Every structure is written in structure tokens, then in C-alpha cells.
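Input:
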Amino acid sequence: MIYLIGGARPNFMKIAPISRAFDKYDIDYEIIHTGQHYDYNMDKIFFEEFGLKDPLVHLEVGSASHGEQTGKIMERLEMLCLDERPGMVFTVGDVNSTMAAGLVAAKLHIKLVHQEAGMRSGDKKMPEEINRIVTDHISDLLFPISPQDRRNLYNEGIPYEKVHLVGDPMIDNLLYYSKNDIEGGSKKHILVELHRPVNVDNPRNLTEIVIALSQLSERYIVIFPVHPRTRKKLSEYNLWHYLDMVDHCEPMGYFDFHKHMNNAGCVITDSDGIQQETSILNISCLAIRDTSNIQYTIDYGTTDLCQPDRDKIFNKAVIKCASEEVSNFTDQLKKLNDGNASERIARVIKQ
Ligand code: UD1
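Output:
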């Protein structure tokens, strides 16, 4: 029995294609939900949209400081694992749930898998960087999404035989649903998704960003589904008035968000996943980040990095909206993003 761990929004678009592949290859698995995210449109909506099976167990940890959240997941998952002894714990991504589940499995000598292994930004101030490093170094089987990530693992001394370069399940999901979703249309609007503490917990940075959005909203329709962390900070720093002309709303489900993404002139974000998805779809992306852990989206894709500075964001977004982007992927990247990564994972697991 494999425990497939899901907890926060970005996990669900990865476990969906992996569970489809597990079903196809007749691999016995159950979803364990940590409860790191719990609002309907950060969690349950994705189970409904992707037809994911109900979690076997919901650990209901909720929000807390990093230590408390990680500790609660560990305590509750350890109890479950001691009772049920799964044969394998399968983790995805880089959220607190990923590392917490990894630590539990490793300490109980349960085989641990990490999908999205080897991603590095080089910035240990990002909580995700710590989660990634810890999980990679205690995993038995590692699935990086790009050659660069595989190199990172080798450079850190992870044995070759543990690492399988298979591609990106999140892109499997994108391609799986894009058949229904993708439609042309006028590329006029700007879509915004922001939630990184470095941007939204810092009043100076968040102010610069919302002023840029305010200026952009004089020229373009700006659609901004607001993450709960960002929503809180906009209230705390009293910044909502900058968004008078911006179409802000609650976080969207996958299908709505992707409809807006497919027709965007530019997407402004600090999300890793959106950088990848826009590059695959040839959509302009401005990443409000100093560094990217997905270098290929900058080297060959459609992502540009941009500091949280009102003029830089405004000017770059205007240029991006006016240009036709084309990803210039190498043959290897095209092959890795062919929509079959999860099946390659399932075949390795089966062996
Ligand atoms: C987490 C991940 C981040 C990921 C992001 C995607 C970590 C360290 N961070 O960050 O890598 O990119 O999810 O969203 O694991 N909240 C709600 N409802 C919810 C969930 C959260 O209101 O369903 C509020 C809580 O008050 C919480 C805040 O949002 O304090 C932030 O949530 P949290 O899970 O701590 O971190 P994210 O910023 O979402």
C-alpha cells in the first residue's frame, strides 16, 4: 500500500495525474490529506474537478507556524503509519506537508519517494528550499522534473541509482485537461497570482506590486484571484484601495484559472507551477522573484524575473502583453513534458 500525501493547493494538480497512472497500472494507493490547506477553493474544489478519490484519512492540521504545522503532521501521520504500516510514502512538491511526511517515513524505515526532487533556488530563506533539501536527502527514490534538477541531486551526492528523470506530472495534468480548455481569443487581460511571503508579507514589496497593478488596470483588464495569505496582508497593510480597478476575487479552481491563463496577455506571479505551465503554453509570464528554482522556464521558456518595483513591473508587463511569446524548449524538455511523466513514475514504482 502506498500513501500518496496531499496537503496544500499545489499538491493536488500533481497527485491527480499520479493517481490516474496508479489506477492504470493497478498500483494500490490511498490519499492521505494533511489538512495544511482547508478552504473549499484551496482544497476540495480540486478533488471535485479532478475526480480524486476521497482521502483515506484527513489529518486536519490547519494553519500554524512552520514548527507547529510540521510537528502536528508528523505526530498524526506517525500514529497512522505505526498502526497501518504502509509499504511506501509518496510525497510531491515542497510544502511543509512534503517534508513532514518524509521525516515520518524515513524514521519508521518506510520507503520514501519524492516527486519534484532536486529543485533548488539557492535561497535557504525560502521555507520550500529547506523542505526540498531535507526531503531529497532522506528519500529512497527521487523523481526530478528536469535535467538541471537531476544534476543538483548528483552534485549533492545523492546516489545515481535512486534518481529517475521522468518529467513533470503537473504538466501531465495541464495537457490532460487542456484538450477541453484551450481556446484562442483576444489576449488582452493580465492574470495575477501572488502568495510568497517574500512578496506579500513585506509591506514595501506588496505596496510596490499593488501600485503596479493599479497602473496596469488603467490600460488592461487585470484579474487577480487573491490567495488567503495575500488577502490578510492587503487588509493588514491597508492596501485594498489600490485594487479598485482590478478584478479581484477569491482563489479560483483549476478550470477557471486555466481559462483565464490561456487567454492572458501576461501572467504576473510568484508561483513556481505557473511559470512552468505558462512556458508550456507559450504565455508570457513575469515572475516577481529574485531567483527561480525552475531555470528552464527562463532559459528556454517564456518567464522573465522581475523585482517588486512598480516601474519595472509595469514596463515589463506592457512589453510582454505586446509580444508573441514562444518557448524554445530543447528536444529533451519537450520529451519530458509530453504528458506521460506520471506513467513513467508508475512503471518505476511497479518495478
Ligand atoms: C503554502 C506553501 C507554499 C505554496 C503555497 C500555495 C509551505 C511552507 N508553503 O504557502 O510552498 O506555494 O502553499 O498556496 O508549505 N489559509 C487560509 N485557508 C487555507 C489555507 C491557508 O485562510 O485553506 C491562510 C492561513 O491563515 C495561513 C495563510 O493562509 O496562515 C498561509 O497559508 P500556509 O499554508 O501557511 O502557507 P501558504 O502561503 O499557502
